[in-house]
Design brief:
The chain is an alpha+beta fold. The protein is built from five helices and nine strands. Strand 6 and strand 7 form a beta hairpin.
C-alpha cells in the first residue's frame, strides 16, 4: 500500500524541475559479505533498495542510483513506516481508516542548482512543498490517501547514518551539498468491502527494471 501511495506522490515529485534521481519507495536491505575469506571474517551491510529495483541490487554493497554522489544534482526517495489502524468512518462505518508516515529524503547539489549557500536549502524544501504534494492522492477506486503538512528534518546526519555507506559519503554531506527529510503524515481510507484485497501492507520488493 505505501508503495502505491509513493507512486502516486512520485508523479508530482518527478515533475519538479531539479529532480535528477528518484528512487520511489525504498526498503532497507541487510546483507552479509565476506571481509577476509582466509579467516572467515564477515560483516553485515545495510543499504536502501528501490521497491522497483533490478534484481542485481541484491548483489551490490551499495545501491548506486539512490546514494548521494557528487556527480548528481539531486537524489530523492521515500522511506515508509508502519501502517496503524485508527478506526472506521462514513455511512455504516464503511470506511476503514489507517495512519502512516512517509519520509521523503532529499539530497541536492546546491551549486549545480545555482544556489549560493547552504541557507538556500530552505528554498528547495519550499519548492517541494509547493509541488502539489499535500492533499488527497487517489490510489485506486476504493482507496485514497490524505497527505498532511510534514515535519522537517534538515541537515541531520542520522538521515543517512543507518546505512553502511555513510562513512564513504560524509564528504557529500557538507556544502555545496544539502540534505533533508520531510516526514509526511498519511491518512488512508479504504472501502470496507475491499479490505481483504488491499490490506497486504507488507508487499514484497518487485525486482523489475526501473
Amino acid at each position: 500500500m505505501l508503495n502505491e501511495i509513493a507512486n502516486c506522490l512520485g508523479k508530482k515529485i518527478k515533475a519538479l524541475p531539479f529532480i535528477e534521481r528518484y528512487g520511489g519507495l525504498v526498503r532497507t536491505v541487510e546483507k552479509t559479505i565476506t571481509v577476509d575469506p582466509t579467516i572467515g571474517l564477515t560483516k553485515k551491510i545495510r543499504f536502501p533498495v528501490s521497491c522497483n529495483a533490478d534484481p542485481s541490487c541484491f548483489q551490490q554493497e551499495m545501491y548506486q542510483p539512490i546514494v548521494p554522489n557528487s556527480a548528481y544534482k539531486s537524489i530523492f526517495y521515500f522511506e515508509g513506516g508502519k501502517i496503524q489502524p485508527i478506526g472506521r468512518s462514513g455511512t455504516k462505518l464503511s470506511q476503514m481508516k489507517y495512519r502512516a508516515v512517509l519520509r521523503l529524503v532529499g539530497w541536492v547539489n546546491l551549486a549545480k542548482l545555482g544556489l549560493a549557500n547552504c541557507d538556500d536549502l530552505g528554498k528547495v524544501i519550499k519548492c517541494v512543498l509547493n509541488g502539489d504534494i499535500l492533499g488527497t492522492c487517489k490510489v485506486s477506486d476504493s482507496t485514497k490517501a490524505t497527505v498532511g503538512m510534514p515535519t522537517i528534518c534538515e541537515s541531520d546526519p542520522s538521515i543517512f547514518s543507518k546505512y553502511s555507506y555513510y562513512d564513504s559519503i560524509i564528504q557529500n554531506l557538507i556544502y555545496p551539498y544539502g540534505y533533508f527529510a520531510l516526514d509526511f503524515p498519511i491518512e488512508i481510507s479504504i472501502n470496507a468491502p475491499c479490505i481483504e484485497d488491499e490490506c497486504d501492507f507488507g508487499e514484497p520488493i518487485n525486482c523489475i527494471e526501473v
